[in-house]
Amino acid sequence: MESRIKSSDIDEILTISTLINSTLEINEVLKRIMDSANRMVEAEASSLLLIDEATESLYFQVALGDKGEEVKRFTLKIGEGIAGWVAKHSKPLLVEDVQKDARFFKDISKKINYQTKSILCVPLTLKNRTIGVLEVINKKGGGSFTIEDQYILESFSNLAGVAIENARLYQDMKSENINLKKELTNGKGPSELISVSRIMKEKLEMADQVSETSTTTLLLGESGTGKELFAEHIHYKSDRRNKPLIKVNCAAIPENLIESELFGHVKGAFTDAVNDKMGKFELANGGTIFLDEIGELAYSVQSKLLRILQDHIIQRVGGITSKKVDIRLIAATNKNLYEEVKYNRFREDLFFRLNVFPIYIPPLRERKEDIEPFAKHFLHKFNHELKKSIKGFSKEVMTTLKGYYWPGNVRELQNVIERSVVLCKSDTITAKDLYLGTESLQTRRIEVEPALTLKEAVNEFKRNYITKVLEKVGWKQTKASDILKIQRTYLSRLINELNISKM
Question: Strand 245-249 to strand 93-95: parallel, antiparallel, or no bridges (unpaired)?
């Protein structure tokens, strides 16, 4: 259709085009578009409605006029009313007398006490897909909307489509940049999982198998065993590798903020909500979200997470609209979720949803073949970072590393090697450079070197070893006796005989 827009109207359109390319405040741009459309076609009121694909409905993104704020409370089903018809058929519609048109939806006008006489409505499209509609209501002075008015409104619809596309492209780019920045900050992309032990190779085979699907995966194991590295491995092996991997530590976010962090919020949802905010699930759209320490997730939020796993639908805090998201969920915990469910600290239905494909990552003490390659890897890493040229470890140090209990697993080993590299002044890490806990290996050896009877030396070892195990399990004697493979009553007697006490 040939445009019949006046030169003064073209100036306004050019002004808005400049605005679109100079700001990413999408709501302000859309309001400006509708305000200009409203004025140029001389309408009493106007609205811009967007389609919510999750609920197959239309919601009012912008509503201008005396009843604008009241109108925003309502939604329309696709196909319902004049706007719903235009959204469904993607064709403009000019209705001079709505009372004579069966498609007119009277409920909203009645509820806000507003008399609607005529409506002009055009589709809002983006990449040949209808995403909403623009409508103007009641020509001022009692006249009728014209075909020229339709041309003008269609021009503004094109501008709105460009503005929304710019905003979506920016948000996609921002999401990818957030993810890339995290990877660069951590100094890694897809992380290499070091493994020579048979048991870890089996676990990696499981990770490779599940990476080929979008199946929810639950990573289990003690702190420091490498659950986050497994999550990265699964993501980067999957067909989502070029989309975001968003990591969330559920234990690190205060309970009153976790819902906003995960699902986002709208402006005004609470005191500090000065702007709309995307949640982690929206940022991960198309990619993977990794929820670490999910056993710490507040019970009140667990039901909302369950809904996302079931329907892939999210709703921002304070919002009235829903959005479909395409995400792959990987969760991790060092807790026994069976016990958490038993004591009503974790939802049973959520546990079953998460536990579709569990992978248990064994502690380092159960895969001692991996200790030496890990130690060499960390030595190389910290040589580079600390600008040193240490060649390796003394035989005594390597024997000690392989024999240590490693309560902090791989993370503790990494910290021990880093500290050793800092302390080492030669080309080999020796006993004086190696600290386990707060004691150096050299100090520990000296403590047992003075003349002790065999019984005294054995008791000294027992005292130190049992104390370490008790510290590891929070001084719970039942758990300690299980690890030590002795009766609990015998452990209690040893504690008394060896004068072991909690410091």
Answer: unpaired
